[in-house]
């Protein structure tokens, strides 16, 4: 029996031409009109639709919504299609174990199945989700990360140390693929603190001259403290030029200072979609890779489009994933807002603020929507805040909902009473209502956030509906 190898299963040269990076990317898109970009999007969208109608998951989803193939004639018709979320994917997995019926190759005989890459999500919001990638989709996914890194200003022959996890989780693997295949950097796949102890990580930085750190901001911040405990001075003994991570609403200034003034860059993506947007060297929002990703921002409650400057769920269509597991109107349940106006690079792409919280992790208190992931950014204005926190939502015996923020501070316990009052005032001013505050010393939230065990620390325990 014969079947194609990984790189024989798609046209690699055409992929590089369709999704440029580096100088070629700028040459292709600088000065392009929104109309010209939309023509590219439309062509890729229609190819995606043709593929998806042959996949049971989409045929069922769309038919149940009353949509027929003739209803979709262009990308302007995308709103006729229903959105779906992780719960729909997990229902498919439950009904058609073990990988669901959304991938598009399940019906093929073994000798005709294309080469695939299999991973799962981290399981942060529940049971880990199986994710299968086709060769073309996998390579574009990696390329878009590298496009972001190079757009940010990654220097030739940099030394990049990654704190993303490996194992079954997708993240660390495809970041490695992005850097090793689409940059000329030396890549150190250190992983999480469980895979490579934090002390060993900082010694790797010193030994190999790491100048770029990539990963989740929380753990990267912790590594700065570990380095100082080891007698290594960030900015002197370990010279980090760039930190590329998922910054969201966390404090940027404190993380930069912790690493001796390193320049910070944010980017956004989820396991199903790959890299959606990346911060540019102008540090004015994240540029959406709209040649590959069609992003809609929809109201959390009504599912209607929101205006620029208003928060909405990111609903994503991956224009490049026309091989395995097409992604069409996937509701990430991650919240952001669009940034209006032109950009200094004259690119046709829209910009967003990045990750501002999860709508399915939102706490509604007395009519106010609170996103736990945004609390750290609020408290960062106080110098005593140590960067780590955890939120607890509870319902009292009278049916009243309350939330308490447990925050780490760099101050002796004798000062906690006064600081508690100050932190409570900050949160009331920024949120609009009073929430409880409990202060602990550095490391005091680790048992709740599980920062030493997880790529993405936990930020909320919601016991209101237990």
From TrEMBL:
<feature type="domain" description="AMP-dependent ligase C-terminal">
    <location>
        <begin position="367"/>
        <end position="447"/>
    </location>
</feature>
<dbReference type="GO" id="GO:0016874">
    <property type="term" value="F:ligase activity"/>
</dbReference>
<dbReference type="Pfam" id="PF14535">
    <property type="entry name" value="AMP-binding_C_2"/>
</dbReference>
<dbReference type="InterPro" id="IPR042099">
    <property type="entry name" value="ANL_N_sf"/>
</dbReference>
<protein>
    <submittedName>
        <fullName>Phenylacetate--CoA ligase</fullName>
    </submittedName>
</protein>
<dbReference type="InterPro" id="IPR045851">
    <property type="entry name" value="AMP-bd_C_sf"/>
</dbReference>
<keyword id="KW-0436">Ligase</keyword>
<dbReference type="InterPro" id="IPR028154">
    <property type="entry name" value="AMP-dep_Lig_C"/>
</dbReference>
């Amino acid at each position: 029996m014969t079947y194609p190898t990984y790189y024989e299963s798609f046209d690699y040269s055409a992929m590089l031409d369709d999704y440029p990076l580096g100088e070629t990317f700028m040459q292709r898109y600088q000065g392009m009109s929104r109309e010209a970009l939309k023509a590219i999007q439309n062509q890729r969208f229609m190819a995606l639709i043709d593929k998806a109608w042959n996949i049971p998951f989409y045929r069922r989803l769309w038919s149940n919504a009353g949509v027929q193939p003739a209803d979709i004639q262009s990308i302007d018709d995308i709103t006729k299609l229903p959105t779906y979320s992780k719960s729909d994917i997990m229902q498919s997995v439950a009904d058609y174990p073990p990988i669901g019926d959304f991938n598009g190759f399940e019906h093929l005989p073994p000798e005709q199945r294309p080469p695939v890459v299999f991973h799962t999500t981290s399981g942060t919001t529940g049971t880990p989700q199986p994710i299968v990638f086709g060769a073309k989709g996998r390579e574009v996914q990696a390329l878009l990360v590298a496009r972001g890194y190079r757009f940010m200003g990654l220097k030739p022959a940099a030394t990049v140390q990654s704190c993303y996890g490996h194992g079954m989780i997708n993240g660390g693997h495809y970041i490695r693929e992005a850097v090793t295949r689409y940059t000329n950097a030396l890549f150190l796949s250190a992983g999480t603190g469980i895979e490579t102890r934090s002390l060993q990580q900082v010694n790797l930085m010193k030994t190999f001259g790491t100048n770029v750190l990539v990963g989740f901001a929380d753990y990267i911040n912790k590594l700065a403290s570990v380095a100082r405990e080891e007698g290594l001075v960030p900015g002197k003994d370990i010279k980090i030029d760039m930190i590329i991570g998922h910054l969201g609403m966390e404090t940027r200034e404190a993380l930069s200072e912790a690493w001796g003034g390193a320049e910070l860059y944010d980017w956004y993506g989820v396991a199903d979609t790959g890299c959606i947007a990346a911060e540019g060297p102008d540090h004015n929002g994240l540029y959406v890779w709209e040649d590959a990703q069609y992003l809609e921002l929809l109201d959390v409650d009504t599912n209607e489009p929101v205006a620029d400057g208003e928060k909405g769920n990111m609903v994503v269509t991956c224009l490049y994933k026309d091989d395995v597991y097409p992604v069409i109107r996937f509701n990430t349940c991650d919240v952001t807002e669009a940034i209006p106006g032109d950009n200094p690079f004259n690119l046709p792409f829209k910009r967003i603020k990045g990750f501002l919280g999860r709508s399915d992790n939102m706490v509604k208190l007395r009519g106010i929507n609170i996103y736990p992931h945004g609390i750290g950014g609020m408290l960062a204005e106080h110098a005593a805040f140590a960067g780590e926190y955890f939120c607890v939502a509870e319902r009292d015996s009278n049916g009243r909902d309350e939330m308490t923020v447990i925050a780490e501070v760099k101050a002796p316990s004798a000062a906690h009473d006064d600081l508690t009052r100050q932190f409570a005032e900050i949160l009331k001013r920024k949120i609009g209502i009073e929430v409880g505050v409990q202060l602990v010393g550095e490391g005091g939230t680790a048992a709740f956030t599980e920062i030493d065990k997880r790529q993405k620390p936990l930020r909320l325990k919601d016991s209101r509906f237990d």
